[in-house]
């Protein structure tokens, strides 16, 4: 039996649906999905196994022009995905424009012409017309002539099975990179952090969601219960007050929503305690970014 195995890396501009696509292909909810841009901060792996294949998917932060150290580190995660891809999924959508990141497109074009399998994904086609879609397909053929184009809707799961089969066929022949029962390269605590951060993105506006980081201080798993203590770090005292809310109401809402999703993720009852602390200007502090896991070295 021929076994195929490889790295399938997902890149593209912010808010084009990369995380939704990753979760649809993996069949598990591993990446944050919200309507806000720049929700993915790390490179997150999801592993799909079959008898004769192993697909190692990577969701990456949206490609952007960085304004502070955290965003520069996020951009490095995206660039690293161009280095080790066996199959590269470049995700776009009908409102996306090539001038948002022309340098990144040039890198993708060079990979494609050098032999890396590049699939150009036009996502959210349920939100456009057939005429517009045909125009987009023609446009992307001129920009990435060596790429294979897949119009899909990750949200509606339209075209996902065809894309999955094409990725499988494009993988190189080889043994698996990870044990066949492994789902991701991230530890349990990472997904607790991400679930809490997702609820912050959903419950707060403006700069608050982008100014916070979450860290699990304690994760104790018992037979029927997981006890978790987590800290939400923000950059200023004024943000701390907003996150907590009047009489703690806002923080309680985040905690309640996060606890339900964590219980669903681990299939266990969860006792979750949240705390809020100030870590001044952490997004621009290299040492603090390393502490929170934003380090490629």
At the fourth level of CATH, the homologous superfamily of the largest domain is: P-loop containing nucleotide triphosphate hydrolases
Report how far apart the termini are.
38 Å
Strand order of the largest sheet: 2-3-1-4-5-6
Radius of gyration: 20 Å
Q: Give the strand content.
A: 15-25%
**On the 0-100 scale, what is the average pLDDT?**
85
* Total count of strands: 9
Query: What string, H for helix and E for strand, traces the elements in order?
Result: EHEEHEHEHEHHEEHHEH
CATH topology of the largest domain: Rossmann fold
* Shape type: globular
Helix content: 25-40%
**H/I helix tally:** 9
Poorly predicted segments: 33-38
CATH architecture of the largest domain: 3-Layer(aba) Sandwich
Regarding CATH, which class of the largest domain? Alpha Beta
Sheet with the most strands, sense and barrel status: 6 strands, mixed
Describe the structure.
There is one protein chain. 36% of the residues lie in helices and 23% in strands. With 297 residues, it is an alpha/beta fold. Helix 6 crosses helix 8. It folds into two domains: 4-170, P-loop containing nucleotide triphosphate hydrolases (Rossmann fold), CATH 3.40.50.300; 188-291, 2-Layer Sandwich (GMP Synthetase, Chain A, domain 3).
């Amino acid at each position: 039996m021929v076994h195929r195995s490889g790295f399938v890396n997902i890149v593209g501009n912010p808010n084009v649906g990369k995380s939704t696509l990753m979760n649809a292909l993996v069949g598990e909810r591993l990446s944050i999905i919200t309507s806000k841009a720049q929700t993915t901060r790390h490179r997150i792996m999801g592993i799909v196994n079959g008898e004769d294949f192993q697909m190692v998917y990577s969701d990456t932060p949206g490609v952007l022009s960085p304004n502070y150290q955290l965003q520069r580190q996020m951009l490095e995660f995206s660039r690293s995905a161009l280095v080790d891809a066996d199959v590269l999924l470049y995700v776009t959508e009908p409102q996306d424009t090539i001038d948002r990141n022309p340098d990144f497109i040039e890198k993708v074009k060079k990979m494609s012409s050098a032999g890396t399998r590049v699939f150009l994904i036009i996502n959210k086609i349920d939100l456009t017309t057939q005429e517009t879609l045909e125009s987009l397909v023609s446009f992307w053929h001129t920009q990435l002539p060596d790429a294979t184009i897949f119009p899909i809707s990750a949200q509606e799961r339209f075209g996902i099975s065809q894309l999955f089969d094409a990725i499988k066929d494009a993988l190189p022949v080889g043994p698996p990179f990870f044990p066949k029962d492994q789902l991701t390269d991230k530890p349990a605590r990472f997904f607790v952090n991400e679930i809490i951060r997702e609820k912050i993105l959903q419950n707060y506006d403006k700069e608050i969601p982008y100014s916070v980081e979450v860290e699990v201080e304690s994760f104790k798993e018992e037979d029927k219960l997981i006890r978790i203590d987590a800290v939400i770090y923000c950059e200023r005292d004024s943000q701390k007050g907003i996150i907590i809310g009047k009489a703690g109401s806002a923080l309680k809402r985040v905690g309640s929503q996060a606890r339900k999703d964590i219980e669903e993720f681990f299939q266990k009852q969860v006792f979750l305690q949240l705390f809020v602390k100030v870590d001044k200007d952490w997004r621009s502090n290299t040492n603090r970014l390393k502490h929170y896991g934003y380090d490629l070295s």
